[in-house]
Specification:
3 strands, globular, alpha+beta, 99 residues
């Protein structure tokens, strides 16, 4: 559950907020913008710190940004993971296990 306003970037392959939702911008500019916005955040995640730059580049292009507000349920502890959330800003609270 989001405890404060949180901006999350994650690897989900559906939804809004990805580089393709930037409308009429040229593809090269969309790519550069995505790299500029997300690469530093991704490099702060421990499991990605030793990764090759090419892998991080490809991963950044698949990331999508989501904004969660206080009280939003993001996932439950114990649920089977189908996506990864990377919290760029904010605080999350673990509230319980999956039913």
């Amino acid at each position: 559950m989001a405890g404060t306003w949180s901006t999350c970037s994650m690897g989900r392959m559906s939804g809004g907020g990805d580089i393709h939702s930037l409308g009429l911008l040229p593809d090269k500019l969309k790519t550069e913008l995505a790299l500029h916005v997300n690469l530093n955040t991704l490099k702060k995640v421990t499991i990605f710190q030793e990764c090759q730059p090419e892998f991080l580049h490809d991963l950044v292009l698949k990331m999508k940004a989501f904004i969660f507000t206080p009280g939003d349920l993001i996932c439950r502890k114990g649920e089977v993971a189908r996506e990864m959330f990377i919290i760029a800003d904010g605080i999350l609270e673990v509230i319980g296990v999956a039913v």
